[in-house]
Task: structure prediction
Amino acid sequence: MNPAAALHLTADRRRSTGESHQALHPLLSGPGQGLSIPAARDAEQARLEAEVFQRVCAMGGLSCHALGIVRVRPQEDVLTLRLVDEPAVLGHWVEFLYPRVSDIRDAGEDPRDRVSGVPGLRSARVPGGVRLYRPGLKAAILLRGFSPDRWERIAAKREGVYGSVLRRPDWTTVEEAAYDAQRVQPFDILSSLLRRIRATAGAGPVNSTDVWTSGRGIRLETTDGPPCSDLVRLLTKGPCGLGWEVTAKTCTCRCDHPHTSTGCSVDFLDPATGRPVWYSNLKWNRTLDDNRVETLARLRSVLT
Result:
């Protein structure tokens, strides 16, 4: 295959996942067939990815990589995420992911209110990284790009806060109840977005992506996202698209002057589920200034 043609066929996936052309080229199946992004194998894999995604979104903008994710390697039975090797980023992943079970008992209380983080989440050291999983379930996420020793040191410092849950090989009763109570969620859509998280990052030095549910729909927000035309193309059409439709759009990307108070918004609809996805790009135009450098230094000392 012509090298230029092959490069074109991997372009959308490279933009969506951060994978290299060299890694993707062997996956090309034929002339003119662009690479797609495989969906999670089953509902449990999609659920784990969705719940991890929702938790780490609280991190905010700590690097040029949205959620600190440099690269995504999507496979049907496992999702591999390469994180930036930044202690503050790793500290936030540990902080927001690992479950913390409250000792406060109230017969009328929703069990989900007693568990912070991802109910049932455990981790295991694997060659070159850390494996996230739930006991007794096959779903898994592999985290790479950093020293597992550093991750374990950060987790060990938090063990005084989380208690013995980090070392527990099975579920607690409260975690099981919280897991069973959280049945109706758009896990498939959230999983698909995480597998395309690089598509939400702009070209600036600071990126932040957030997602949350709102009624039957999903809110997707970036603070310094990409041009709307790029994101719309990657999420709707093409080999990596989700088949979404655009129902409304307000875009300032092509204006000949900067906007400091007006961002962009795009309303999507997922025809397969009937769920709306409301996207907004706040366009904060943040820079890696002295204040942000000082904030990172302070977070390193607190979280690690």
